[in-house]
Every structure is written in structure tokens, then in C-alpha cells.
Design a protein that fits this description.
The complex is a heterodimer of chains A (495) and B (321).
Chain A (H helix, E strand, L loop, with lengths): L4 E10 L2 E11 L4 E6 L5 H8 L7 E6 L2 E2 L5 H7 L1 E4 L11 H5 L14 H14 L19 H13 L5 E5 L7 H16 L3 E5 L3 H7 L2 E6 L2 E7 L5 H9 L17 E10 L2 E9 L3 E6 L5 H8 L7 E6 L2 E2 L5 H6 L2 E5 L2 H4 L7 H12 L7 H14 L16 H13 L5 E5 L7 H16 L3 E5 L3 H7 L2 E6 L2 E7 L5 H8 L2
Parallel strand pairs in A: 3-8, 3-9, 6-7, 7-8, 13-18, 13-19, 16-17, 17-18
Antiparallel strand pairs in A: 1-2, 1-4, 4-5, 9-10, 11-12, 11-14, 14-15, 19-20
Helix pairs in contact in A: 8-17, 12-14
Chain B lengths: L1 H11 L1 H19 L6 H26 L9 H16 L6 H26 L3 H20 L9 H8 L1 E2 L2 E2 H19 L1 H11 L1 H6 L4 H27 L10 H12 L11 H20 L4 H26 L1
Antiparallel strand pairs in B: 1-2
Helix pairs in contact in B: 2-13, 3-8, 3-11, 3-12, 3-13, 4-5, 4-6, 4-11, 4-12, 5-6, 5-11, 7-8, 7-11, 8-9, 9-11, 12-13, 12-14
Chain lengths: 495, 321
């Protein structure tokens, strides 16, 4: 039998990063096929190449036995390949109906909109999800009035009314409730039975075994295996995902005091549910799991960015109010983001100003002498071995890694008790990364504690004392000692 | 080689450019109309520039705070400061302290309202401050009842126009003000907060700053300085016949700030440049007057100057993003 869609040796490179090095993939007619893999393994890249949202560097794609050469997602749609991405593409000011038919062929005479037949189709489509949508949603409802999950459903319907032969759902279930997912899966099964083929990208093992026929596992940009889900096991898939582990690179065990510095009890907030953990003095505690499971939200909430949190956070036996970043800074917390440009660096301002701001704020200094300020900044920047010409130089002239050092310096000046780090090594060169790891250990030896979220699994497994695994805003596992491995990490993250 | 780069970058410094153009204007003016660059004439121009200098200092703060910050109520607030001060003091030195305090507090309050509208309610600065200007003008009209206000006290006249070494008091006031203001910008927590949040508001908030309050305060101070300028202006004029006397400060304070190298995107540019910008603007206006260019022609040239500068800065803002 000729497969419906086949990819042979597809590759894709982004600058210096090989996102996809060997993409081989076979999709049969009438099957539900999952794409699985660790963070940043290339799943989304592969699916984007299929619909030509990205151009492949090399390799071949066959569709219905013939070579497929697309030049745009619109062409892919015309050929019968449609995709629902995670990022919502609806236009908020238009109505449900207008959004659904935006750019579709369903038009009346002379290219005018045939709104009557559109309305009928739209109502029919909405009826499928009737039980899980708000009652007052009709084709005329503007999309602004819909909630996130309802928008996701409209997004899916928008693709479904075009009756594709190949349907790709890229984490389409992540913003849906359980009952909504059930209905979606029923529709997906119906579609399969009608002969449509569906590619699903999902992190949820449960979904995989619930409705999947086959799954292709991607590791570091390479499609390593395709398994039949009727016979495959959970363990088998996780093993394929993480591959042979280099167990020799184990981190040396550090002596951590049993002295609890931060105690988080029953913390709930937007994107977080019932978080409980303790952070010891001098400990590096990692936050991990699949991306976007509440790790960043946890750090931001602890830094006073969530007005409606519930639960208790106790630092040094003192309950924290977490009212604003300003309050948190005074309580001894600090926050370093990987998105330096947006959340860290003051472009065009000097290194001195970038380093001293939080210190001046925390110490409530009203007037200062720049000379004296420079003297107090120097030892910190020296400790970070920052390379620069003069303190009056603009921070924009420094490399990404050095900018991050300045921001760490900004916080070290405030003598924080806890560093909250949200993917701090993002876009930092390897040499500086190693320096940062060493620095983090030194700081912890000096009594500072670090709560560290990272999107790089290896760095966090190697450089932390313990790792909390998050899934959908909950802590699902705690890894320490021998269990600090990618295998355990993904087993917990995808359960 | 390094030296060359330094000299080159000095020439790119807006303050140096503005100062250079100002000197150039003096030379050309002196050539075409002898006496233009004489000491008394320069002092006259500086005297008039002083008031703009104080208004532009406030504008400087608001623009530095970033996120499109601009205060277009300053013109009307200058008028309010003059009229309110005059009405309360009513020509008597005994009332001067009350008058001064009332002007400062009332105009600060106006600015705080501007700040609240912009930061807490989310009204675009342009619309908020222009609307506030209309309200302020009506208040001024109400105070005067349509009649001239004769309110400058002998002491005010003496302080503002009285000369020492041939230089009127207001110029000394401006110089002292400028020195304090520059120190305030560079060496106070408020100044540092303003520069950093103008550069990146979110990062400033995540560094522990109360960004909203600092922004509200900038609008408050801007308005207060405009009120102060108006109060001093009353001492210069003696009495107020014209309710629109402050209007010109709206545009010229923005032009002065931009000429002085302050980025409208926020976070960049200090008062030294702004002060030079004010002097340059006054030189330019006097120069055009001497060239017998009517007032509408002068306004056209001011407008074009601003547009050209904004075009240049729009490019820079894009580069920054």
C-alpha cells in the first residue's frame, strides 16, 4: 500500500542549530499518528515543514505517491493538508463565522460572501461541541468574547470545515478541559473512520494510548522509531525519547544543610495548582518537565507578580505577602529572566546604572555619588569576571552572556537570600554557561539558595541538587540522587 | 585612531550640535544685523529662554519616563501659574508666600491627575494632557473673569527683573535651577529610576521599582515646574492681559527637549542638552524676528524643525528595537 504521506531524510537548520537532522515519517491513510519527543527535539519543526509553514533544507516529501512541492500553507490547505497550531490565529474583532470562513473557498457569486450557507455550516460545526461551549455562542458572537478554550475549539472547527485529508493538531488539547478533549477525540476518531489521517503532537501519554494508532518518536532532530501503540509500552516510548544515557556525567553530590529557607505551602495561582515544596539554605533546586507547565508562573508568583494567589509562602519563618516585585526584593528575593531584552536589560543605559538599580532601590538611597557607586559595583563585577571597557559604557555593547552577568550582578548587590532564575542561560554561549554554573555553585556554598527553571534538560540534571517536575501546574515528582536522569524526568513529565 | 573616534562621537552628541548651531546663529545674525550678538542682546535672549528652560525641565522628565510620555498641558499650566499667583498675591508682598505655595500645590495636583489618567486609567498621554489643558484654561478664565490680572508684587519684580552685574535675576535663577536639576537627574534614585524605566519599563518593575508611581510623579513635577515658570513669568510681565500667554510653551518645550537630544522613546537625554536646546530655540526665534519674518513664518519653521528631528529620531527608535 502506498502511504498517504511520506517524508524521507528531511532536514532543517536554524542558524547554528540543526533543528531536524533526519526526518523520516510515514503516515498511512486512516490512522491517528502521534509525534512525541523531549523539549525542542524537532516535533513542531517537522509538522511545520509538512504544511510548508517552514521550508525544508533538504529531503523529499511524497503525498499520495507523488512528490509534493508546496510553496505556502495556503497551497497545502488546497492539497488537503491542514494544521491547527498552538498559537491562536483567530482575529478577535471578527465574529465566529467570519473567522471560520476567513480565506476559505466557500464564497457565493462574484466572490461575495454567501453568508446564509456559511451560517448554516457554522451552526452545524458549533453543534458538535454544543455540550462544552457556553450557551450563547452563535455564529455572530465576536471572538473577543470567547475564553481561551473556546477559541481553541473554534480554531479546530475552522480547519475541520475545510474537510482536510491530513489533519495536524499541534498540542491542540493543551488549553482544553477534559470533557472538551473527549469530544475532540470522538471527532478525531470519526474522521479517521471516514478515511482522514490525523497527526497529533501531544505530551500526554494518556492521550497517546487512548486514541493513537502509531507513534513516531523524535530525539535531537532525528526520527528514531515508529511504534505500534497497541503493543508498545510507556517505558519503551520514554526510552526511545531519551536514548542511551551518558551516566558518567553525574554531578558530584554536594553537602546541603537541612535548614529550610523557603517553605511553599498549598500555593495556587493562575496556571498553578496546589504547589508544595521546601528550599533549603544553599540548595540549587531545579524546576523541570515539559515546557510551559507552570514553571515560569511559579517563579513569577514567588516574585510578587500574581495578585490572586492562594496559599502560604514562608521565608526564614516569616510569611511573605508577595505583593509586588518591590516587596519581594526587600524580603530578599531576586528574579533573573532568560529573556534579557524584555525583562532584564536597560538598553542604552550604562553598565553602572544597570548594575546598581536594584541595590539603590532596596537600600532606599536617595542621593548618591557616582564615584562611590562605581567603587561599590567593582568587586561584584570582578567576581563575575565581566569583561568591559568602562562602567559608563552602554550595556548594549556587551554580548548576551555578559549582559546576563550584569543582571546577576544587579541582584548580587542586593545580597539576596534566593535567586529565582527563569531559563537564565538562554542564548548564552557555552563558555559563559559553564562560568554561570560554577558561579551558582559558589553562591550556594555562600548560603544563597537558587530556584532554577531551565528548558535544557541536561544542564538542570547536571547542576542541581534536586529537581521538581511540573505538569499542568502541579508538582508531579521530585528527582534526587540516582533518579536525576532524563529517563526519570520524562517518565514523570509525561505520565 | 582612538582619539579620532572620540572627536567624531563628540560631534554626534546632540548637545554639542545644538550648541554649535546656536553659536553659528549668533555669528550669522551679527553679520546680517550688527548688534545681534552684543552682550545686552544675548542677555535679553537668555532672559526669555529661562522660562522655557524651566518648563522644558518638566517636559524632560515626562519624556524620559518613556511609553510615549508627553505633557501637552504645560502651556495652559504656565498661564494658570501666572494668573493664580497674581490673583492671590494681588500685588502685595505680604501674600507672596501663600501665592507661591498655592501655585505649586495646585499645579502639582493637576499633574498628578494627568499621571493617574495616563498610568492607572490608561488614557494616551497626548489625549489626557491636551484635555487637561482645556480644563486648566477654563479654570484660568474663571479666576480672571475675563479681566486683566495685575498681580506681580514688588518683590517678585525685583527678583525676576532686577539686575546684578547687568544680568537679570531670572537668569541666575535658571542657572542655579539647572545645576540642581542636573544633579537631581544623575545622582538621585528618582533620576536613575526614570532613566532605567524609560529604557525598559518591565525590567524596571522586575527590579523592584514602583514604575506607576514614578510615572505619576513625573507628570506631577512637570506640571509643577510649568506652574513655577508661570509664577516667575508674572514677575517678568508685571500683569497678565492675555489668557493664551503660555500656549507657545506646549510645542516649544517638546522641541527643546528633542533638540537637546532627549529620545521621545524615553530613557535617554539629560537637562544640559535641553537647556542648550532652549537657548538655541530662543536664538532661532530672535534671529527670524530680526530677519523680519512674521510670526506665522516663525511658527512654520519651528514646526518643520520638530518634524525633521522627529524623523531622525524615529529611525533611531526603530534601530533600538
Amino acid at each position: 500500500m502506498v502511504p498517504l504521506l511520506e517524508l524521507r531524510g528531511v532536514t532543517k537548520r536554524f542558524g547554528g542549530v540543526q533543528a531536524l537532522s533526519q526526518g523520516d515519517f510515514v503516515l498511512n491513510k486512516g490512522e491517528i499518528h502521534f509525534l512525541v519527543g523531549a523539549n525542542g527535539c524537532g516535533k513542531s519543526t517537522l509538522s511545520k515543514i509538512i504544511v510548508c509553514a517552514l521550508e525544508k533544507d533538504s529531503g523529499e516529501i511524497f503525498y499520495k505517491g507523488k512528490a509534493l512541492n508546496l510553496s505556502s500553507p495556503a497551497e497545502a490547505r488546497r492539497a488537503g493538508i491542514a494544521v491547527v497550531f498552538q498559537e491562536l490565529s483567530l482575529i478577535p474583532d471578527l465574529t465566529v463565522q467570519e473567522n471560520m470562513f476567513l480565506g476559505s473557498k466557500n464564497q457565493g457569486m462574484l466572490g461575495f460572501v454567501d453568508s446564509k450557507s456559511q451560517k448554516k455550516m457554522c451552526e452545524k460545526a458549533l453543534a458538535r461541541f454544543k455540550a462544552v461551549l457556553s450557551k450563547d455562542i452563535c455564529p455572530e458572537t465576536p471572538v473577543t468574547r470567547l475564553s481561551t478554550d473556546e477559541r481553541q475549539i473554534i480554531e479546530i472547527l475552522k480547519v475541520l470545515i475545510r474537510e482536510p485529508e491530513v489533519l495536524i493538531l499541534d498540542e491542540a488539547t493543551s488549553s482544553l478541559h477534559t470533557t472538551q478533549v473527549e469530544i475532540l477525540f470522538n471527532i478525531v476518531r470519526e474522521l479517521r473512520d471516514e478515511g482522514c489521517s490525523i497527526i497529533l503532537i501531544s505530551h500526554k501519554m494518556k492521550e497517546l494510548f487512548e486514541i493513537g494508532d502509531r507513534a513516531t518518536i523524535i530525539r535531537n532532530g532525528e526520527t528514531v522509531a515508529t511504534v505500534d501503540l497497541k503493543s508498545a509500552t510507556h517505558d519503551e516510548i520514554v526510552t526511545h525519547m531519551v536514548g542511551e544515557e551518558l551516566s558518567s556525567s553525574k554531578n558530584e553530590e554536594r553537602e546541603i544543610s537541612e535548614n529550610v529557607l523557603l517553605d511553599v505551602r498549598n500555593l495556587s495561582a493562575h496556571g498553578l495548582k496546589d504547589i508544595n515544596f521546601t528550599l533549603n539554605r544553599g540548595e540549587i533546586l531545579g524546576l523541570s518537565g515539559l515546557q510551559g507547565q507552570g514553571q515560569s508562573e511559579l517563579l513569577l508568583t514567588l516574585f510578587g507578580n500574581s495578585s490572586d494567589f492562594r496559599g502560604e509562602v514562608v521565608l526564614d519563618n516569616k510569611s511573605l505577602g508577595l505583593k509586588s516585585p518591590g516587596h519581594c526584593v526587600r524580603d530578599g528575593l531576586s528574579y533573573i529572566s532568560g529573556d534579557r531584552k524584555k525583562y532584564g536589560v536597560f538598553q542604552i543605559r550604562s553598565i553602572l546604572e544597570n548594575t546598581a538599580l536594584a541595590y539603590i532601590r532596596k537600600k532606599r538611597v536617595h542621593l548618591f555619588s557616582r564615584k562611590k557607586l562605581k567603587i561599590s559595583v567593582l568587586p561584584i563585577l570582578e567576581r563575575l569576571s565581566l569583561v568591559y571597557d568602562s562602567l559608563d559604557q552602554s550595556i548594549s555593547n556587551l554580548s548576551g552572556g555578559n549582559q546576563q552577568k550584569v543582571i546577576i550582578g544587579r541582584w548580587l548587590m542586593t545580597e539576596p537570600k534566593i535567586l529565582l532564575m527563569d531559563d537564565p542561560t538562554k542564548g548564552v554561549d557555552i563558555k559563559t554557561k559553564e562560568e554561570l554554573y560554577t558561579l551558582m555553585k559558589e553562591l550556594c556554598d555562600a548560603g544563597v539558595s537558587i530556584l532554577w527553571n531551565s528548558s535544557e534538560d541536561q544542564e538542570i540534571l547536571k547542576n542541581t541538587d534536586r529537581v521538581l517536575v511540573l505538569n499542568e501546574g502541579r508538582i508531579v515528582d521530585e528527582l534526587r540522587g540516582d533518579r536525576l536522569s532524563e529517563y526519570e524526568l520524562y517518565k514523570a513529565a509525561m505520565a | 585612531m582612538n582619539l579620532n573616534i572620540n572627536i567624531f562621537s563628540k560631534f554626534k552628541n546632540p548637545t554639542v550640535i545644538a550648541a554649535g548651531i546656536a553659536v553659528l546663529l549668533l555669528i550669522i545674525g551679527e553679520m546680517s544685523a550688527p548688534g545681534f550678538a552684543s552682550f545686552p542682546q544675548i542677555i535679553n535672549m537668555l532672559t526669555v529662554a529661562s522660562f522655557l528652560g524651566i518648563v522644558a525641565a518638566g517636559q524632560n522628565l515626562v519624556v524620559l519616563s518613556g511609553q510615549g510620555g508627553i505633557d501637552l498641558s504645560v502651556g495652559k499650566v504656565v498661564t494658570l501659574g501666572a494668573i493664580l499667583g497674581g490673583a492671590i498675591a494681588n500685588g502685595m508682598d505680604s501674600g507672596i508666600i501663600v501665592a507661591f505655595a498655592a501655585v505649586i500645590m495646585a499645579t502639582f495636583f493637576v499633574g498628578i491627575l494627568n499621571g493617574i489618567g495616563v498610568t492607572l486609567i490608561g488614557i494616551p498621554p497626548l489625549i489626557m494632557t491636551l484635555s487637561m489643558g482645556i480644563v486648566v484654561e477654563s479654570i484660568s478664565r474663571f479666576i480672571t473673569g475675563g479681566l486683566a490680572v495685575k498681580g506681580a508684587t514688588p518683590f517678585m519684580l525685583k527678583v525676576v527683573t532686577g539686575r546684578f552685574l547687568g544680568i537679570p535675576g531670572i537668569v541666575y535663577i535658571w542657572i542655579i535651577f539647572a545645576v540642581i536639576f542636573i544633579l537631581f537627574q544623575n545622582n538621585s534614585r528618582y533620576g536613575l529610576s526614570l532613566y532605567t524605566m524609560g529604557s525598559n519599563s518591565e525590567a524596571a518593575r522586575l527590579s523592584g521599582l514602583n514604575v506607576k508611581w514614578i510615572r505619576i510623579l513625573s507628570y506631577g513635577l512637570s506640571s509643577m515646574l510649568a506652574g513655577l515658570a508661570g509664577f516667575l513669568y508674572l514677575g517678568y510681565l508685571g500683569s497678565i492681559y492675555n489668557i493664551s500667554l503660555g500656549n507657545k510653551y506646549n510645542l516649544s518645550s517638546v522641541v527643546a527637549v528633542v533638540v537637546g537630544g532627549v529620545s521621545l522613546a524615553g530613557g535617554k537625554g539629560g537637562y544640559l542638552g535641553v537647556a542648550v536646546g532652549c537657548i538655541l530655540l530662543q536664538f532661532l526665534e530672535s534671529f527670524l524676528t530680526v530677519q523680519s519674518i512674521p510670526s506665522w513664518g516663525r511658527e512654520i519653521i519651528m514646526g518643520i524643525t520638530l518634524l525633521v528631528l522627529l524623523t531622525a529620531y524615529a529611525r533611531e527608535t526603530k534601530l533600538r528595537q
